[in-house]
Amino acid sequence: MNLSNYIISYFWNVCDALGVALPTVCLDTLFCSLSHNLCALFQIARHKMMHFEGRNTKETRENLKHVFQLYAVCLDLGHFLNEYFRPLIFAQFLAASLHLCVLCYQLSANILQPALLFYAAFTAAVVGQVSIYCFCGSSVHSECQLFGQAIYESSWPHLMQENLELVSSLKIAMMRSSLGCPIDGYFFEANRETLIAIVRTAISYVTLLRSLA
Predict the structure, then answer these.
(1) Where are the chain's structural domains?
(2) Which of 2, 45, 84, 150 is 20 to 30 A distant from 199 in Cα terms?
(3) Are 93 and 188 in contact (CB under 8 A)?
(4) Torsion angles phi and psi, residue 55, rounded to 5
(5) Which residues of the chain have pLDDT under 70?
(6) What's the whole-model pTM score?
(7) Which H or E run includes 108?
């Protein structure tokens, strides 16, 4: 009823919302930018791998050495990225799972009600936030695995006639690339399959609650 009190309360609520939203947005943006930069480094390593052949055996060996060093740096960066963001990914996925269960139930219980728009927007925000981590984690993992495809598409048959030792190193690199660079949250990996599993589990949980009701 008092305008000054209303303005103070409104300003307080705005500051409260910004205090919650801004750190979350900053962390999500930081993870997204770091993972995309890491994907770019993996793509550079793939490009160098496909064009490693030099004018002689010594130059070819040196080019391969630099490519493998770059790939090793990418793997180390992926390991550090996963180590630092693993607790955050775990918290995000756990909170998203609980939120989606509650929100899906609220959506089914408030069909054709004005509150439906609020719950729908909240659900889209939660799914979008989890999708960032799943998409970025899946991109890093797949880009790391594609390094093995780059080795296969390179001029490795030419090395078999010159240096079999280099061919063996290529085999080892292909075996390592098959493992990829997974980004996980302790108990689950951040990829598209996990996102689909979270949404599907929330929907099945809501279906079970509705059937029991």
Answers:
(1) 23-212
(2) 84
(3) yes
(4) -80, -20
(5) 20, 54-55, 160-163, 206, 208-213
(6) 0.80
(7) helix 57-109
